[in-house]
Amino acid sequence: MTDPKRFTEEELSSHDGSGEEPALVAVDGKVYDVSKSKLWPRGKHMNAHPAGRELSLEIKAAPHGPEVLERMELVGEIAEPEPEAEPPAGPSPLVALMLARHPHPVTVHFPIALSIVGALLLIAGALLGNATLETAGFINVVIAGVGGQGSILASHLLAQTALKQGLDVKLAETFGAATRGGSVMAHVRMGEVWAPTMMEDEADVVLSMEPLEALRVAVRFLKPGGWALINNRPWMPVDVAVGRVEYPAVDSIVDGLAKLGASVVRLDATELALEAGNARAANTVMLGGLFALGLIDLSEDNLFGAMEERWPERLVEVNRKAYCLGHEAVSASMGDLT
Question: What is the pTM of this model?
Fold first, then answer.
């Protein structure tokens, strides 16, 4: 029996399905060929998970387990990384003495001083708490959910609020396979940014209308130490509804977010929206929670103005109340955290 082929991360990344090479994915150290699967057209699964990568974390957030890959051809394993070379030995005592007595020019001292000042500023920022949009220069928010929950509408309201405040805004949206029930995600980038979509680990906040979608998105986009604001009310996928798979407990989803380094705030946005007068106002309940986190320096008046431009007065009043209920709920949760 021949030894399995071993792939480095660089070799695996070249098998992303975009060229002539087969589309490969790795899970738990094993490499599978997904080229022949109809679920991986052009090397992408659900238009969200590209081939050529290690997907162990993503598959833990999926409605299925790694056993689905057993239908695919096992083509190898991930190679162990090369051990790091030992650092070179330091200078001899004579050379060290000469360096110590050498009068460094300004071209040496200035970069050293700059690095020290930069480190001190980072420490000061950590001691002073989370940066707002005004001090950070930009902020990245991912709004996630499933079709029909109002995630895209929430992203438009947030972007319109930032525009009314005179900020640069970039907005990008992705949709799942279905209008209602498919995964939906929007990137809202406010401030001095160029690209509309974020790279991995760039989101300051993941706002999710549905618990499991929060984990799915956070695994890829939430930066370490970022915030996850989630609606406690699950939206059951079709596979769960027909009994093929079991929906994980919300507490286990929250534990998964915490393991990613997220600060998690949860609320029942659906219940609060019903209290405001309309279950469809859950998205503005979540926007109220987002404002309560204190990470974005946007005016409530501008948000209410964006609502007035979109809805008649009756709906504006319902959504104002929904916003206030969400703001109060998260403010109370933040008080409990402190």
Answer: 0.60
